[in-house]
Design a protein that fits this description.
Number of strands: 14
Strand content: 5-15%
Structural class: alpha/beta
Shape: globular
Largest sheet: 7 strands, mixed
Distance between the termini: 56 Å
């Protein structure tokens, strides 16, 4: 604030002058400044520096699971910062919160076949580490040619060079010359759009598994290292697996000796009404990626979780490689681990995993009941408190709304007028919800009421300028 007074400029101007913002139209930011400057938060609400209070139905970026303003987490951060703020975990160094967190996760929360945890600061870093671990595993097994990683169209796995390559989103590739050559993409399992007329979900899953099988065979199984997938897709707007999908995919991976990396950055820590999506969908991961909900974003943290199968190989003696030569400065950061332990206490003490399951079902049911018949509505989908709606021009024929109209982001703007933060998407006409797991049914009712007003405004706009005419 001293610098602000000395320069006699607003916070908005300082931001415009100094900061390159992620996923932001840079020319627009230079002209218009920041969308809003967030000053405080409480529960599912955030307030900006202009005193405007919004419902945040996205928990920021799918991550503030325990809600805003939790003094328990802030106190744990403060206590640890005063006690011992930082020392690295390289060369076998450790700290008490890191040890306690790893033990708590592995002994009771994570799948039983998981063995070790490598901490980092972001989901992107953890996905990079998991690719390295997968390559390490194959090299130590005497299969160095197994390098290729298969990801899915529409998937999101981070912003590092590898994370962005794994992400099946062209907007993340075009300006950077990505993806890397070792990354291949296969089908997005969205039954609403991808299922053939008369095809059951299970048959659709079998068809996608057959496509994966044929892809691996074309690439040569001896060159394919791992397959990575989110249990429920985030940037694709809560696309859930169709019936039997992961079981059919697992058969193909086992057949070709390909590892499964479960990216649980969003779906972990209760978002789906279960501790992890792998548990909910019967996934048998060889590696897992955790972030976001591990600390509810009160501190940056992430983790790569290594199965016994992978650990037994990479931990064996290899004279030519005397150490695991990878890691990040903030790995196992004591303050972040203290925040994570406090979040785990809240999850368990307030039964937030079950709340996500129960209130999530209510949320989905109410979306169907209150706006399911809206002429713009095509699909309500999702699991737990990770939900989305798909907009269409005609629900009977599944006619697509013109993507050039960017209805997803226009709906986001119209919901903002109702003081509701949702999520807009590039490349499809979806709107998403992923509120803090503390949400109540009355707060759900408020969200849907505000969203319905925004949806009706969008419909009125499209009709008024002649772009769309409702069929019913």
């Amino acid at each position: 604030m001293t610098d602000q007074a000395a320069r006699n400029v607003s916070l908005e101007q300082m931001d415009t002058d100094t900061t390159l913002h992620a996923y932001t139209a840079l020319d627009e930011h230079l002209k218009n400044g920041p969308e809003r400057i967030i000053a405080s938060g409480n529960g599912i609400y955030i307030t900006d520096t202009q005193g405007r209070t919004y419902i945040d139905s996205m928990a920021s970026l799918f991550c503030v699971n325990v809600g805003y303003g939790r003094s328990e987490v802030a106190d744990a951060i403060s206590e640890q910062a005063h006690k011992m703020a930082y020392f690295h975990t390289f060369c076998g160094n450790a700290n008490e919160p890191q040890i306690l967190l790893a033990d708590r996760l592995l002994n009771g929360l994570l799948p039983q076949n998981m063995s070790k945890i490598l901490f980092a600061s972001s989901g992107s870093e953890a996905n990079d580490a998991n690719v390295k671990l997968a390559w390490n595993y194959q090299i130590f097994r005497g299969k160095p040619k197994k390098r290729k990683i298969i990801a899915r169209e529409g998937g999101y796995h981070g912003v590092t060079v590898m994370g962005a390559s794994l992400s099946g989103l062209p907007i993340m590739h075009q300006a950077f010359g990505l993806p890397l050559d070792c990354v291949i993409h296969t089908d997005k399992p969205h039954y609403f759009w991808g299922g053939n007329p008369g095809e059951s979900e299970l048959d659709y899953s079998k068809r996608l598994a057959k496509n994966l099988d044929e892809l691996i065979q074309r690439e040569d199984p001896e060159t394919v290292c791992a397959f990575i997938a989110e249990p429920v897709m985030g940037a694709a707007a809560a696309v859930c697996p169709p019936e039997g999908y992961f079981q059919e995919i697992q058969k193909v991976l086992d057949k070709h000796d390909v590892l499964f990396i479960a990216d649980e950055v969003i779906t972990g820590f209760g978002r789906l009404g279960a501790w992890f999506g792998s548990e909910l969908y019967g996934i048998e991961p060889d590696l897992m990626t955790l972030s976001k909900g591990i600390t509810s974003a009160y501190m940056p943290s992430s983790a790569s979780v290594v199965s016994k199968k992978v650990w037994d190989v990479i931990s064996a003696t290899h004279p030519e490689m005397p150490m695991f030569a990878s890691g990040s400065t903030a790995a196992g950061h004591p303050i972040a681990c203290a925040a994570a332990l406090a979040c785990l206490d809240i999850y368990e003490n307030e039964n937030l995993i079950n709340n996500a399951k129960v209130v999530g079902k209510y949320f989905k049911d109410q979306l169907n009941e209150r706006i399911g018949d809206h002429p713009l509505m095509g699909e309500v989908r999702g699991e737990g408190l990770m939900l989305a709606v798909e907009l269409v021009a005609d629900k009977d024929t599944k006619e697509v709304l013109n993507l050039e109209w960017d209805c997803s982001h226009r709906l986001f703007d119209l919901c903002l007028e109702e003081m509701l933060i949702t999520r807009g998407f590039f490349g499809h006409n979806s709107s998403s919800f992923a509120p803090p797991l503390t949400i109540t049914t009355s707060e759900v009712d408020d969200i849907i009421g505000r969203f319905e007003k925004g949806l009706n405004k969008l419909a009125d706009e499209l009709v008024a300028d002649g772009r769309w005419k409702p069929k019913n």
